[in-house]
Amino acid sequence: MEILGISTALLGSQLLVGLINGSFYAILSLGLAIIFGLLNIINFSHGAQYMMGAFVAWIALTRFGINYWVSLIAAPLIVGALGVLIERLMLRRLYKLDHLYGLLLTFGLALIFEGVFRDQFGISGESYEVPELLSGGVNLGFMFLPIYRGWVIVASLTVCFGTWYMIERTKLGAYLRAGTENSQMVQALGINVPLLITFTYGYGVALAAFAGVLAAPIFQVNPLMGSNLIIVVFAVVVIGGMGSIMGSILTGLGLGLIEGLTRVVYSEASSVVVFVIMVIVLLVRPAGLFGKS
Questions:
Q1: Is the full-model pTM beyond 0.85?
Q2: Could you tell me if residue 55 is inside a domain?
Q3: Within a domain: residue 107?
């Protein structure tokens, strides 16, 4: 069967690939949106932290025999703890300064992290086996869907919408939002605002590491895997609206699907379609699709 001269099998497979990519865009841009929206820090080291999550899982498996399921929890905790140290020792000093200082600091950290891992592991890339429980695939009729890729979509969406619910619908989320808008008033109520800010940055970093563990069995684990993705993720955040939680999730998924569809219609444009959309959105709505002016 064909639609506009395109076979449904090809269309379906590329849209599914786009949805998988969109899941990574969503969870990574969500971490960026949380950090910027609540802390006003442009975290340019987010891609490096995503890479570090993948490497922690790979090192845990190859050197210590720790399986994927343990790494899925341990890697975000380890990289998130590093994020807590960064916030405590460095970023805390920059909150009252211009955004540019935070961007430059995190960009420098990204270069340091990538350089250390490149020196230790090279850039050829390391493979990470799909966990046995998620091996194999399912025949959908128009394509063969690897079970692991389906798991990536489910896990990413669960974490994304769970995070949105926590920030927008719980008391903890209310404290976080209030603490960033009027920290003195919230502290007067007995809430430890600096601790909340530290938790927020650590959680945003942990989201990047979680995405890295999900990505390890799909993409080769290498020190440049974050830098190859982070520019697209920043474009997603800008299109959705800087600091918009739901905007980041929906825009990430939507742009992944658009990218997959573009590969079918005009493959040469698939690598730039996100940036074309970003330019159009910035011209029409500078605050982004879901952002506030």
A1: yes
A2: yes
A3: yes
